[in-house]
Amino acid sequence: MQQSTVRLTQPKREKAHVKEVHGLPIRRGTRPGKRFVYVHYPKSWEFVDMEYGFLPIPKKVVAVPGCNGVGKNGDMTPVIIGVTQKGGTYINPTDSRLGEYEGYVQYYDCENGAKWYCDFCSEATVLPDGQIIWSSRRDEWQAFRATLRDSGIVQPLIPEVYQMMLAKQVTRTERIGAKLNRNPHLQDKYNSEVKKLADMKEFWGGMQKEKIKAAKGKPKAPRRRVADPLKESQ
């Protein structure tokens, strides 16, 4: 019996024999990120741009036993007390005012079962050789800092600190401007610093107008009636 020609057009897919990644690899000499919290000091501010304005700069305090007063068991209470004594603010991860950023202390699992603590906006790319490349979602980080400012969690930017920041920016701008004759390639950088200086003044001015407007809009407290003893006695 003569057999007919058979044409096969759909090969079956072969499952890739690749080891699945169940956590971040720990290379020799690599230390995973430790547990941490954020704190903020009154002078720690920076001007970002006209969209975000002035944002606080949180400082990360890492729970390394024996460092900065951290106890052997990783207790950070002594550190937090020290921060407040220096005029700083402890940013409690459980503070409900953080909104979507409540619980900002986050981590990735490691292959050996450990935890690699990192910022909530951190992303890890693992290369084939086990190397980890870290990156951060900038817009999300800026939004977090704006939440710290707008929610009242950190102390507001005071005029004295603003004047200090402004003076530093003036000095930086003038220093670059003084080099333009010998270094024309600095022109773009100089223009950028001049613009930043102008933006800082404009944004601060807008903040002050908003404060005045808000103060005028507050209802005045009713005046207390003071009894006249002469009339009362009649």
Distance between the termini: 135 Å
Q: Which percent range describes the beta-strand content?
A: 15-25%
Structural class: alpha+beta
Radius of gyration: 29 Å
Instruction: Give the ordered list of helices and strands.
Output: EEEEHEEEEEHHHH
| Structural shape | extended
Instruction: Please count the helical segments.
Output: 5
User: Share of helix among residues?
Assistant: 25-40%
Mean pLDDT rating: 86
| Number of structural units classed as domains | 2
User: Spans of 5+ residues with little confidence (pLDDT < 50)?
Assistant: none
Biggest sheet character: 3 strands, antiparallel
Explain this structure.
This protein is 33% helix and 15% strand. It is of the alpha+beta class. It has two domains: 36-150, no CATH class; 159-217. The strands form four sheets. A three-stranded antiparallel β-sheet has the order 4-1-5. A two-stranded antiparallel sheet has the order 2-3. α3 packs antiparallel against α4 (187-217). The longest helix is centred in the C-terminal third of the chain and has 31 residues, at 187-217. The mean pLDDT is 86.
Provide the fold topology.
Elements: E1 36-40, E2 45-47, E3 54-56, E4 59-62, H1 77-85, E5 89-91, E6 106-109, E7 115-118, E8 122-126, E9 132-136, H2 138-150, H3 159-177, H4 187-217, H5 229-233
Helix pairs in contact: 3-4
